[in-house]
Amino acid sequence: LGGSISRAIQQMSNATIIDEKALNDCLNEITRALLQSDVQFKLVRDMQTNIKKIVNLDDLAAGHNKRKIIQQAIFNELCKMLDPGKPSFTPKKGKTSVVMFVGLQGSGKTTTCTKYAYYHQKKGWKPALVCADTFRAGAFDQLKQNATKAKIPFYGSYMESDPVKIAVEGVDRFKKENCDLIIVDTSGRHKQEVALFEEMRQVAEATKPDLVIFVMDSSIGQAAFDQAQAFKQSVAVGAVIVTKMDGHAKGGGALSAVAATKSPVIFIGTGEHMDEFEVFDVKPFVSRLLGMGDWSGFMDKIHEVVPMDQQPELLQKLSEGNFTLRIMYEQFQNLLKMGPIGQVFSMLPGFSSELMPKGREKESQAKIKRYMTMMDSMTNEGNSNPKLMNESRIMRIARGSGRSVRDVMEMLEEYKRLAKIWSKMKGLKIPKKGEMSAL
Ligand code: GDP
Ligand code: MG
């Protein structure tokens, strides 16, 4: 896919005259590529129409960077398509919320329920899991195993066959126990499809969820729209989670799910394990959809973010797959020096939605400073290798920096998260001087 899009744009920028035909050819190529990426035909067509309105042929002819203009227009258009215009309901810590998961069997509901619970638990919530899947044998065992591993309370039954009854019992119990995030897992199959949707409607009616999350397997292809729409018609879907993004699928179906449910994607699943779960970030997602990798814009932005003299060394280290604590420290320093223009930094993978959420720059800066104090304490102590970490070291670092053990753990988690994202830079071909913007 990436190949054909870059080829299309490349061909076009090589053409001496950019006329309507050249632009059309280019858009047709891109259309084919997006269809292969499972973006629904209707959505692709809409995008094509919009691009034609946006891209001004005169600008292109005047010798502006055509490739960039078109690429940017497509990129923006896809980002817009993933934004339904309103955020989803967001549960509040300490206040009881019921969240119901729906989706076809195999989409990853049960796995994602646990990931969602675990994600919040790490942030100090009191989540609980309810298994309202009575159709599939072993459904309760699977949830129980996951929940036990994550030390999350769970509810379910081997005997009861009425999912509505179990859902209500579970929700009631955990409300009494003051859990603030009660997650209801449901079945994804039935003897008859109609019965499945009726069951979802009944479970929702009985448990009154604050949020219904539609879980979608990224590899379902063009079926995404109908599937999402079918669920939306029986329950009030308010958010989407796309799973198996670690596989080959590019996840174009997400655009369909957003269009069909008028709800945003909130997380993506990136593996079978509990912590392979990321807050949805539109830019890297679209880059991937277009086959540009998560690193689109990175080489351009690195000029603005990282001081000139640090650039070659940083790229070299990243290409070796070494995202060290030192690198994190230096990038934090750069980030603080830039002050409120943390905007630029949001282009760097991993630094955006989690570390520096929009509108909360002050808090983020305080957090980063806190991390740096603890990292100083680690270095002072003579060993900055985060891999050689144990309880007593963590306690020493906490003491040395005047922070709590929990703070140190949080900083180390943050390091692990960034290191994982940045390890994808391994094997990166480092462009020679002057080649940067050609990427
Ligand atoms: P459910 O039937 O909707 O409850 O789906 P499950 O949670 O049982 O998941 C079905 C399969 O997909 C299991 O083998 C999961 O381990 C796997 N799975 C779920 N999410 C992901 C993901 O993000 N990445 C990968 N690679 N596998 C996943
Ligand atoms: Mg399940």
TrEMBL record:
Per UniProt, the keywords (alphabetical) are: Cytoplasm, Endoplasmic reticulum, GTP-binding, Hydrolase, Nucleotide-binding, Ribonucleoprotein, RNA-binding, Signal recognition particle
Any Pfam family from its record, for instance, is SRP_SPB
Q: Which PROSITE patterns match?
A: SRP54
Q: Where in the cell is it found?
A: Cytoplasm; Endoplasmic reticulum
Xref: InterPro entries: AAA+_ATPase, Signal_recog_particl_SRP54_hlx, Signal_recog_particle_SRP54_M, SRP54, SRP54_euk, SRP54_GTPase_dom
| Reactions catalysed, as given in the entry | GTP + H2O = GDP + phosphate + H(+)
One GO cellular component this record assigns the protein to is: endoplasmic reticulum
Q: Name one GO molecular function term.
A: endoplasmic reticulum signal peptide binding
Q: Does the keyword section mention Acyltransferase?
A: no
Domain annotation SRP54-type proteins GTP-binding: ranges? 264-277
Task: Give a GO biological-process term.
Answer: SRP-dependent cotranslational protein targeting to membrane, translocation
Its UniProt domain note says:
The NG domain, also named G domain, is a special guanosine triphosphatase (GTPase) domain, which binds GTP and forms a guanosine 5'-triphosphate (GTP)-dependent complex with a homologous NG domain in the SRP receptor subunit SRPRA. The two NG domains undergo cooperative rearrangements upon their assembly, which culminate in the reciprocal activation of the GTPase activity of one another. SRP receptor compaction upon binding with cargo-loaded SRP and GTPase rearrangement drive SRP-mediated cotranslational protein translocation into the ER.
Concerning HAMAP family, the annotation shows: SRP54 (MF_00306)
Spell out the subunit comment: Component of a signal recognition particle (SRP) complex that consists of a 7SL RNA molecule of 300 nucleotides and six protein subunits: SRP72, SRP68, SRP54, SRP19, SRP14 and SRP9.
Instruction: Name the family.
Output: Belongs to the GTP-binding SRP family. SRP54 subfamily.
Query: What is the protein's known function?
Result: Component of the signal recognition particle (SRP) complex, a ribonucleoprotein complex that mediates the cotranslational targeting of secretory and membrane proteins to the endoplasmic reticulum (ER). As part of the SRP complex, associates with the SRP receptor (SR) component SRPRA to target secretory proteins to the endoplasmic reticulum membrane. Binds to the signal sequence of presecretory proteins when they emerge from the ribosomes. Displays basal GTPase activity, and stimulates reciprocal GTPase activation of the SR subunit SRPRA.
Name of this chain's protein? Signal recognition particle 54 kDa protein
